[in-house]
Design goal:
The chain folds into 2 domains: 3-157 and 282-345, Antithrombin, subunit I, domain 2 (Antithrombin, Chain I, domain 2, 2-Layer Sandwich); 158-279 and 350-386, Alpha-1-antitrypsin, domain 1, CATH 2.30.39. It is built from 8 helices and 19 strands. The chain has helices at 3-20, 31-44, 47-57, 64-76, 97-101, 115-129, 227-238, 397-413; strands spanning 27-29, 81-90, 108-111, 145-158, 164-169, 179-187, 193-198, 201-209, 214-221, 244-246, 253-256, 259-266, 272-278, 280-287, 317-329, 333-345, 355-363, 368-374, 380-386.
């Protein structure tokens, strides 16, 4: 991936975080799913719409389409990550051949003007491209819709070192008094946890390594810090815009939120990092036209005139732009998906403890942020905020045994 493109996408992620992350609410979003679509629109735009889209992209409109194609191809080559682009148009809408030729092969389908039939087609595409994680295309489609441009990003990864899950009662903070599905594990790699000093205060970052080329970073700020500020500080740290210090070099005590470093006696000479966090699942729907200035869609959404002569000789304006996103973090791994769509219409024994070693303990037991990051390029693929943990649900062992017994009886009769 080109460094310039990665920086541009990460800048949009950080800007979007300021608006998408609000106190008390969980969310997930991916600028990596929006940016290529804006780039393709910019390639076919003219006038103020082209200027505004280029400003939102952070690169010139003349190079936007090529950058989008390169980014999508690179994303689809990351193990565990699937990227797709789709275009649907009315059959009577003329398309400019140079613009259409820049789309991935097989990406072009057709709208019928039958709202129910088109809805089924678009929803089926979203479900197929995300493996069922998102089952509805987030776009308004009716008989006036001339064109739909969509992207889908799906990430599935497993942890190199799984967590243990267990019921955990939280004793302080916003989750005090609740029993959640806690996750814990221990490692000798102290620098999996780091602290960055941001203008708004320190943040603690935990790197959870995936089995492909993507890792997930959990981000914890001070209790009084705004969620958006904490997540933006995390983005700056994981993209190395600001420095961070690993736990092996941090002073003893409490050098970062949720982090304690001290010493302990051990039977082995290795240092230890004890990790405690929670399972989470967040879903979100975003109307990009609520932030049309951020995404460069102010002029492009003015239906009184056309803005995309490079796409079609018919006058076109953006009438719908939305993203649906989901993220799940559990003991075995992480999965995230986002579908973005833009609609266009006219207008045991006691061991001998002989070593004194460093021990770091980190706990994510209050709201925190998360970032899925491509390891080599530092591209942020997905971001979000965890306002609530997955609650622990007691298993009904008697019911499970009864069901198993009933199933075995049925198998015998079969």
């Amino acid at each position: 991936m080109k460094t310039k493109t990665v920086r541009a996408v990460n800048a949009l992620t950080s800007s979007w975080a300021e608006h998408a992350v609000v106190p008390g609410a969980g969310t997930a979003f991916t600028a990596a799913g929006v940016w290529p679509l804006l780039a393709l629109l910019a390639d076919g735009a003219e006038g103020p719409a082209r200027t505004e889209l280029a400003a939102a992209l952070g690169i010139p409109a003349d190079t936007a389409a090529e950058a989008a194609r390169e980014l999508l191809a690179a994303l689809d080559g990351v193990r565990g990550l699937r990227a797709a682009t789709g275009l649907w148009t009315r059959r009577d809408l003329p398309l400019e051949k140079p613009w259409a030729a820049g789309l991935p092969e097989g990406a072009h389908g057709f709208l019928t003007s039958d709202e129910d039939a088109d809805r089924k087609t678009l929803d089926a595409w979203a479900a197929d491209r995300t493996g069922g994680l998102i089952d509805r295309m987030p776009v308004e489609v009716d008989e006036e819709t001339l064109l739909v441009l969509a992207s889908a990003l799906t990430l599935r990864l497993r942890w190199i070192q799984p967590f243990w899950d267990c019921p955990t009662r939280i004793d302080e903070g916003p989750w005090a008094g609740t029993q959640v599905l806690g996750l814990s594990r221990s490692t000798g790699l102290l620098d999996r946890v780091r602290v960055a000093q941001a203008p708004t205060g320190p943040v603690t970052l935990l790197e959870v390594v995936g089995d492909g080329g993507v890792d997930v970073h959990l981000v914890l700020g001070e209790p009084q810090a705004l969620p958006a500020q904490t997540l933006q500080a995390g983005i700056a740290a994981v993209t190395r815009a600001i420095p961070s210090t690993g736990a092996s070099l941090l002073p003893e005590g409490n050098p970062g939120p949720g982090l304690h470093i001290g010493q302990m006696l051990s039977e082995a000479p290795q240092h230890r990092l004890n990790i405690q966090t929670v399972a989470f699942e967040v879903e979100a729907d975003h109307d990009l036209l609520d932030l049309r200035g951020l995404f460069g869609l102010q002029s492009a959404s003015d239906a009184r005139t056309g803005h995309f002569p490079g796409i079609s000789s018919s006058p076109l304006a953006v009438t719908s732009a939305r993203q649906s996103a989901l993220a799940r973090f559990h003991a075995e791994g992480f999965e995230a998906a986002a579908v973005t769509a833009i609609g266009v219409a006219a207008g045991c024994a006691m061991p001998r403890l002989k070593y004194r070693v460093r021990r770091a303990r980190v706990a994510f037991h209050r709201p925190f942020g998360f970032l899925a990051v491509h390891r080599t390029s530092r591209l942020v693929l997905a971001a979000g905020w965890v306002a609530d943990a997955v609650p622990h649900v007691e298993r009904d062992h008697e019911a499970e045994e009864a069901e198993a017994w009933a199933n075995s009886e049925l198998e015998e009769w079969d």
